[in-house]
Every structure is written in C-alpha cells, then in structure tokens.
Amino acid sequence: MALAFSPDTERAFDRIVRRYPNLRAALIPTLFLADREFGYLSREAMEYVARRLELPPSWVLNTATFYTMLRKRPTGRNHIQVCVNVACYLRGADQLGDHLKKQLGIGFGEVTADGLFSLEGVQCLAACGTAPAMQVNDVYHEDMTIQKVDALIESLRLAPQTSGAATGQGGAR
Amino acid sequence: MIAIPANPGRGHLLRCGPGESILDISKHQAIGGFLALRKALSMQPAALIDEVKKASIRGRGGAGFPAGTKWSFLPKDNLKPRYLVINADEGEPGTFKDRYFLAQDPFALLEGIAISAFAIGAHTAFIYVRGEFVSEMRVLEEAIEQMRRAGALGRSVLGSTFALEIYVHPGAGAYVCGEESALLESIEGKPGRPRNRPPFPAVAGLWGCPTIINNVETMACVRLALQHGAEAFLAMGLPRDGGPKIYGLSGHVKRPGLFEAPLGLTLRTLIYDFGGGTLDDRPIKGIIPGGSSTPVLGPEALDTPMDFDSMKAAGSMLGTAATTVFTEGTCPVAVLVRIARFYAHESCGQCTPCREGTGWLERLVESIEHGTGRPGDADLLLSAANQILGNTICALGDAAALPVISFVNRFRDDFEAHITGQRCPYGAA
After folding, report:
1. What is the ipTM metric for this complex?
2. Dist. CA A63–CA A48, nearest whole Å
3. Which end of chain A has fewer CB atoms surrounding its CB within 10 Å, N or C?
C-alpha cells in the first residue's frame, strides 16, 4: 500500500509549509511527521516526503542521513536513550547504561525481541544539572538512579501499548 | 568586588526557581511583562540598538560577541526581508541554561525576541530548538499562541504598526547546528554544514537575506536591559560585560543546577557557596569552566572571576558559564575520552582536519585510557590537536582540539602513567 499522511498529520503538514518561503525549508519538520506517522524513515517514507515537498529524493536522503534523530531504522516501542557525555558520566551514567543492558538483555543500538524496548547511548541532552539523564521517546527522565530506572522499566512494561515510539514531534502540534 | 546574591537560585534572568514556571501570559504581565516591549515600540529602532550597545550585552551563546555590534552589521541599503533567528540548539556538554527559558519562562524569551526583531526590522523570527526538547517546543508554541491572542504578536504588535510572526523550528540531533551558519543551513532543509564566511549572516544569511542569530539568554538580557534601562543593566555586571549571567554547575558537586549572579563571579563562590562544595568534600582535580570545549582549569583557578576577559587571561574561556567539576580520584583520561568521542561523533565531516583529526584524537585517547598507548602518544595528541586548531571552517575543530591540549598539558603525569603502566591507574577503563 502506498504511504500517505493521516488527516491529522496532513493538517500539521499544512501548518508547517505555510511558515517558509519555500518547500525545502519544511523538510526537517516534515521528516519528523513522517518518522512519527510511519514509525521510521524507510526509503518509501523518504520518497513520499520528497514527492510532497517537490524535492529530488536524493536531497531528502542527504538531509535525513545527516541527523541522528531522524530514524533510518525501526526502534523499540520505548526508545531509551542514555546520555553518556561528561556530566552524566561523572554522575554514574555508565552504571545506569550497564544496568539497562543487563535488565533488557540488549546492547546499545539494539531492540528487544518483543519490540518493546530499544537502547542507545546518546550525546549530551542538556540536562547536566540533573545528571544522570535519559530520554524515553519524547520524555526526559532526570536525576536517575538504578532504583528509578527499575521502576521506570516496570511502568513501561505495564503501560498500555500506544502506537509508535515517536521521537521528536518537531514543533508540529 | 561584585555583590553576591543571597538567593542565587532566582534573580532577574532566573525569574523561576526549580520547579516553578511562568506559562500563563497573565502571570508574565503581572510581574512587569511587556513593559519593556511597549517601551521599545515607542523608540526609534536606531535608538534601541544604541541602548543595547550601551548595556554592553555580550552574546550568551558562548562567544561573547557584543549583541548591539552584531546588529549594527546589517546592511542599510538591502531591500530583502530581514530575519531574526534564535539559537536554542543547546548542545555544548555541560550547558543546560537555555532549556530553563524554553520550559519554565518562555515569555521572557519571546518578549526579548519581539524587542530585538523590532530593533533590527525583522518581521519573521525563527526559534531553532534542539529536537530532543519536544515538551519545551510545545510550551513555546503555546506561549506564542497566547501572545498572539493577547495582541502581542501578529499584524500589529501591541497596537503598533510593527508586524511580527515567531515560529519554532526543530533541530534533529546535530551539535554542529549550534554553529550559526550550520543552523541556517538546517532551517533551509539541508545537512548542517557550516558556511564559509564572508559573507556573514548579517549580510547574507537565511535564504540569502540579512539575518541576525542570537542566543536564548541574550534575548532575555535584551528584555531586561530595556525594562530597567541600559545603565541599570550594566550595573548588574561589569563595565565591559553588562548584566547578570546564568551560571550552570554540574559534575561532582553537592548542589548542581542553575544560579544567577553578576558577571565576574569567582569559581570558588559558584562551586563552594552556590554549589555547596564537592561531593564528600573531596579536593578538586579539574574544572571545565564553560562547556566541554573550554580548556580545563585546576583548583588554582578558584579565585578567577568568571567573565569573558578574566577567563581568557586564566587560559580558558567563559563559554556558556556552564561549569563541570571533577574531584581527585577521577581519571582525567577517562573524562577526556567522553569529550573526544563527542566531538568526533559531531564533526560534520566537511573539513579534513576536523573529520580525520577528531577521530584520530578519539582513538588515541581511548587507546591510552585502555592501556594500549605507546610512548610518545601524549605528544602525538598535542601535535594532532594543534593541526586541527585554526584549520577548519567553523569552531568545532577548535572545540575538539582545545580540551585535548589542556588535558594533556595539565594532567601530563596521568597520561604518562597510563602509557608506562599499560593500564588505567584509576581502574576507570
């Protein structure tokens, strides 16, 4: 089936393109819409965005592959990103990361077999005063401890399964 | 001597303490909101720029360039539209101050934007927010909507003939987009690769139009300077560095967080008075004073005032005044691994010295940390770093090289101990 935006996303897309003097400037916000709508940016998703913005697909690929938050492959329903940079490192980020790897049975860059979790070590989240910090999908979790991580994982396991582990709605309310 | 505030958790810029916020426009108005904007709209733009120059506001994004001077670079005879772009791509490790405005006090930022846009004659402003700040972007969009409904944005800002729209534009996870010309590329929908200058953005920026790029905190400073007047604002800081500053504190301290004080605060006051001292009262080993790219200092620098000129004289930089502290017992090579890895990861790959050099630095520091360093590697690090320095289009190359040079020079014995002992003496690897 050919990819297409839902009516809600279509409205967000309309709002976005109106802000700019040309369609290319709407590319990154539109890629976020596609990422959220389709789960990740498959080749088809990028080609769809290219058609909607009247851009060569190569331009879309060029931009999409430059930015880490635009997902080129699927993540788990709960995409856990642990900051591994200096301020978090000094406050125990490695212990948190190791604990998560053990609890979930996966390494950084991997997805659990049930698709519920994926894990990633990320660069500075700008939450250094509340280190160690991590982000699950769109939501920050700060001042983390092993106990808080365990409670969080438990609550995510029990949470109703909402659609899509979208990262970054990108100013497209 | 500067006056030390009794409660540095709040002040003129930090209107909200931890856990507090001003998300309702009526709350902003109740504490003097839009007085500064009304005052600005009653002035001539040229007089407004003079006022900002008089206030001596140095850009709060890290470089400390005077905001009023930057504005005066706009060409007078260019008929293209002008843009104001706010850099909210906060990503320099250690720095977390702009997020405060986005999440807790958006109207201070938005009012500063409206004043600045009027001063430079821009009718469209973009706030480029790092993509991870999803909830912050929602807060900002809601605040913009409230301002529009209150008549403080749109075709007639507060009943004047000045029209302004403010849009939020998301970043997507690239530190280099905090560099102003890369940020413009990113808004245009391209990979964030810095541009060669000249032309400078003030002449040819967004879509080739005259563009001013300012930091979030700078906008809050503009608002403050207008509200209290340039002289009063200047008196809150130093003659050459006007106004208060938000200091960040992280790492091995008892009370990390954001604090407001005049520019020129000493590191000692920040770390020991505001931050409550170090964890377990251990002695300090290293102080990264203004974000991970600023050269590391030691405890001998504790009495250095934190302003742009004094920090430079001490061999480092004020940067974003985001101080990260680590204490004795911490392996400095392991700390540098995190920093070197970051810059290697974030290099855009455009300039060879940075693309190749940052990867080389990362691998060398890692190999030393893991006990596989060879004699001469410390000098090799210095040589590689020095060949990046000054040889790239943007400052990311320097940002990668400076911490390496400063760590090797300051902690030379630690580096050599790793190499001769063939292991990390701190057991960190």
Report:
1. 0.95
2. 14
3. N
